[in-house]
Design brief:
Layout (H helix, E strand, L loop, with lengths): L3 E2 L2 E3 L2 E3 L6 E5 L6 E6 L3 H20 L2 H17 L1 H12 L3 H21 L7 E2 L6 E9 L2 E5 L7 H12 L3 E5 L5 H13 L7 E3 L4 H10 L3 E7 L2 H12 L4 E5 L4 E5 L5 H13 L9 E7 L3 H13 L19 H16 L3 E4 L18 E4 L15 E7 L2 H9 L3 E2 L1 E5 L3 H10 L4 E4 L15 E2 L17 E9 L15
Parallel strand pairs: 1-5, 8-9, 8-11, 9-10, 11-12, 13-14, 13-19, 14-17, 16-17, 19-20
Antiparallel strand pairs: 2-3, 4-5, 6-7, 7-22, 15-16, 18-21
Helix pairs in contact: 1-7, 2-4, 2-6, 3-4, 4-5
The chain binds NADPH dihydro-nicotinamide-adenine-dinucleotide phosphate.
NADPH dihydro-nicotinamide-adenine-dinucleotide phosphate (NDP) binds next to helix 7 and helix 8.
Length: about 500
Amino acid sequence: MTGTEYGLYIQGRWTTPASAARFSTFNPATGEEIGSFVAATPAHARGAIDAAQAAFPSWRDTPAPVRGSLLLRTAALLRERKEALGRLVTREMGKILPEARGDLQESIDFLEYMAGEGRRLAGETVPSELPSKFCLTVRQPKGVVAVITPWNFPTSIPNWKIAAALVCGNTVVFKPASTVAACAAEVVRAYADAGLPPGVLNLITGSGGTVGGALLDDPRIRGISFTGGVETGREIYVRAARGIKTVHLELGGKNPMIVMEDARLDLALEGLLFGAFGTAGQRCTATSRLILHEAIYDTFLERLLERVQRLRIGDPLDPATDMGPVGGPDQERRILDYIAIGEKEGALLRAGGKKLTAPPFDRGHFIEPTVFEARPEHRIATEEIFGPVLAVLRARDYEEAVRIANGVDYGLSSSIYTSSIERAFRAVHDLEAGITYVNAPTIGAEVQLPFGGVKNTGNGGREAGSVAIDEFTEIKSVFIDYSNRLQKAQIDPPAG
Ligand code: NDP
């Protein structure tokens, strides 16, 4: 079966440039072709920037509440299409259907949340040090922004960025991960069907290595919003610096869950299974390190291993499946390499570790849920694997658990299970991460809270929540002097 053919979406039209090369996406569970896409060139990327630049003045001048209404219409369309698009997410990316529906739901939630921002986009008013002078700030859009996204949340991460950019009055050139290009095209179709004016949102498919430079070097692109791997993020940051562009980076994670001796172990175990093996461990917030207090280490580990054996791996469209395939051949290779590294560096493999090759798994990329007993210095306990591989670590006490948790270069999400209120609050204070959960796993972001991390996870900004608009607006300070005379700040007022 051949996949659906898609074009680029530029200036409000789906276009297939003559003689354009094409590439395809494939179902990681079955190898079935999902879609065929234009492999855009730098010239196509520049065409998309032309369209976004031309559309900018009138979109900027469209009242923000009207821009917000468009997001509401897009949300309504995604809701109508949720089941069909959920199945597409599962088929193209491999996450199980309930999680794929969750991806769509997060998109809808965020669009609705950002639509309300169209009626806020708040600045501030502050007093002047001079009489008859009024001071305030207003938010203005940046202009054309580039949105570059990864494959693991094929609808929600694009929507987080696109909706926030649009409500603030920017126009967008969107470059999705190549392996989930059909999901990206369907996201763009929803905005188009909702009535977004031509040129306001443009889609460029094709290799990031090929079109990335055109986006990063073009002086008309004023902001870049990127989610992906650390190395790609670093390259983008450095390259965009030459053009003094603002760059928002959401990068990797190595998220710890601490289970203390006073935790409710049944609750912690359920949380761990969801956090570590949900989406086959391919969430930036996935629990990839389990830090157990030594008093419950053996008990908890035995219960965990017993539950891991019972996880059902299989067709992600089947409601009985707990865990589907990993994202594709590159992802599979990377995960298997890390499993080999773990064994070589002396971590103890306690569960899984293998690719499944017998039918019905032989056409897909399935890896067993894998558990290692590791030490904090092991590479599998410090580097992001982005797969169903858990490193279990032992801690003598709370202090050591926190030291281990903080002993990596990343700081996205973190979690502690404890029944002590004092320890819970200490952990909120002590854990070096952008997100801390108490008695809940490291995954489960909600759109009304900021999302992002510290250290190598990001460069300081946050997505989602009310602060999402900071990434996509410039703040202008405004001074209105109605005194009818020249007043000199810092000079005129009487000395204080
Ligand atoms: P990559 O960094 O490989 O790719 C991300 C995006 O960047 C893709 O669209 C890719 O295009 C594009 N790209 C690649 N090279 C360039 C370049 N030179 N210039 C411009 N764009 C480029 O990440 P993955 O897609 O593999 O995603 C997995 C990573 O994303 C993990 O490390 C994960 O932790 C991180 N992530 C972080 C999140 C967070 O919020 N902190 C959330 C989700 C994921 P193409 O596909 O064509 O190569």
